[in-house]
């Protein structure tokens, strides 16, 4: 059971890393634009930070997948620990952006999803998942999937389900009504009615 849980949690964390890297590569301007809109990093460091994040996700995802397939327990645990730190950094960064009153797009997917508390929750959950995978990998003895085809398929499906659930969480819980195009104060329908002239009744035709 420990081996199954280690494989499922490790696989989910690695799939999230690879999905993030693929999203950034397929939309190269998305993350730099989001970081610029957040206004936390200096303008000159935005592109370098975006490139570093994309590279870290891709390298960790590939290294972890290689270690998982090869059964390299120590290497996989190290990759998962690094992934947990990376996801924790995401959670801390998005929490800081939201707490400081800044906004902008998430920058974590192809869609123009706005930054929200659910993005922070997802990052924290992925950090916990990666950390759990690192611990369970050490306890399981060997990180390779269980021997039978059925067990391997079940672990792979569980990993994909965990990753998909967490990856789509912010989009699934996003409320477009919470981000209207115009505020009520500027809406034409909210303008106050003109007051009648002082000391007289309102004129009617």
TrEMBL record:
Q: Does the keyword Membrane apply?
A: yes
Organism whose genome encodes this protein: Streptomyces hazeniae
What is the protein's given name? Methylamine utilization protein MauE
Q: Where is the composition biased (Low complexity)?
A: 180-198
The protein's UniProt keywords, in alphabetical order, are: Membrane, Transmembrane, Transmembrane helix
Protein's cellular compartments? Membrane
Q: Where mainly found?
A: membrane
Q: Which membrane topology term applies here? A: Multi-pass membrane protein
- What ranges does the record give for the region Disordered, renumbered to this chain? 177-205
Q: Taxonomically, which superkingdom?
A: Bacteria
Methylamine utilisation protein MauE domain boundaries = 2-135
UniProt keyword annotation of Transmembrane helix present: yes
InterPro entries in the record: Methylamine_util_MauE (IPR009908)
User: Which Pfam families does this chain map to?
Assistant: MauE
Q: Which residue ranges traverse the bilayer?
A: 44-68, 75-93, 123-142, 154-173
């Amino acid at each position: 059971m420990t081996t199954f849980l280690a494989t499922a949690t490790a696989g989910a964390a690695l799939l999230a890393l690879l999905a993030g890297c693929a999203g950034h590569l397929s939309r190269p301007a998305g993350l730099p634009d989001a970081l610029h809109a957040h206004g936390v990093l200096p303008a000159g460091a935005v592109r370098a930070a975006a490139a570093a994040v994309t590279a870290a996700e891709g390298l960790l995802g590939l290294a972890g997948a290689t270690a998982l397939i090869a059964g390299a327990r120590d290497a996989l645990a190290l990759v998962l620990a690094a992934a947990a730190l990376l996801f924790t950094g995401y959670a801390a960064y998005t929490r800081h952006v939201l707490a400081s009153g800044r906004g902008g797009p998430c920058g974590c997917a192809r869609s123009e999803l706005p930054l929200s508390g659910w993005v922070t929750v997802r990052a924290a959950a992925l950090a916990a998942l990666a950390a759990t995978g690192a611990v369970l990998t050490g306890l399981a003895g060997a990180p390779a999937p269980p021997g039978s085809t059925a067990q391997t398929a079940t672990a792979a499906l569980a990993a994909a389900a965990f990753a998909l659930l967490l990856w789509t969480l912010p989009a699934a819980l996003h409320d477009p009504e919470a981000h209207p195009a115009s505020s009520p104060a500027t809406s034409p329908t909210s303008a106050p009615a003109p007051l009648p002239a002082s000391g007289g009744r309102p004129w009617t035709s």
